[in-house]
Amino acid sequence: MHTAEYSGFSKIKLFLALSRTPHGLLDVCTPLLAALLWLGHLPDSRIIVLGIIAALAGYTAVYALNDIVDYQSDKEKISQAGFDREASYLDGTSIRHPLARGYLRMPEAIAWAGGWAVVSLVSAYLLHPVCALILVIGCILEAGYCLLLRVSHLRILVSGIVKTLGGLAAVFAVDATPDPGLLLLLFFWLFFWEIGGQNVPADWHDIEEDRVMGAKTVPVYFGPKTASVIVLLALVVCLVLSAILFRAASLQLSLPFYTAALLMGFYLLLIPALRLFRTRSREAATALFNRASWYPCALLTMALTALIWKGIAIG
pTM higher than 0.70 for the full model? Predict the structure, then answer.
């Protein structure tokens, strides 16, 4: 154990590393974007505040839960490969898996994850009971996803579902009876973004370690060639669905902003996916993961800009 090496602010940094906070902060943009697309305008201040608290606390808890459930497999990976800090990899900008490295004790990690889960659950319930239920389902699915590491590559489908839940919860926070068709469109848009832009590239980053320990991930199971095809197809579908969603959603984007939204997807998703398809390299997979992680944040910024511009034009 190395807990004595860290105290004060440095210990807090370990907890933030446990929850992959840089990535979690970007993920908070997803439910905010979903609510904005659904309503066509900003929600009231109560929903915004509760929503941000619920989302930030929820992602903090779920990412920590991932490391808690994956404790043994992460220890095995560390013993084989070390998982050194990598500034070029978004999830490696701080110490990866501080729990498995022995920098945090299991009771500390559980208390951290549990505390944030309670905060998220209460905030989500105040938004809508369905939001709280979605959080519970997300935690259960995340644990199941981790436990399937050596069981089946189809666990990627679980990951795709988990990543959509923040956006779906945001919809129920602003609309108690959402349109099922539009909700499915939002679901599959986020689902294919997660598959092609997050899950497979992240697993590709760890492909050598996963091969050694017998993990069942898409890059290991299918190999780089087929995995690169899966990534490219998933992101093409994601972009097609985005073109439909941005027209069907309540937030009606004018042509310049609609075009900008599609170009963002092309730059952040399709270009790095094509590079991965051509090179099938670990570096290309890392670059895709990093860029794709910024996709919801970039779209949220664009949507807010469109609202401000619309307000100026009307005024």
Answer: yes
Report the C-alpha gap between 101 and 104 in whole angstroms: 8
Name which of 163, 110, 174 is nearest 134 in CA terms: 163
Determine the Cα angle at 136 with ends 22 and 304, to 5°: 45
What residue ranges define each of the domains in the chain, with the CATH number in brackets? 14-314 (1.10.600)
Residue type, 250: S
H or E element, residue 299: helix 295-314
Q: How many CB atoms lie within 10 A of CB 258?
A: 16
DSSP result, 63-97: HHHHHHHTHHHHHHHHHHH-----TTSGGGSS-S-
Are 199 and 218 within 8 A, CB to CB?
yes
Question: Encoding tokens for residue 242?
Answer: 């985005």
DSSP-based three-state secondary structure for 122: helix
Q: Which two tokens stand for residue 154?
A: 């189809």
The pair phi, psi for residue 196, each rounded to 5°, is -85, -30
**pLDDT tens-digit map of 277-303:** 999 999 999 999 999 999 999 999 999
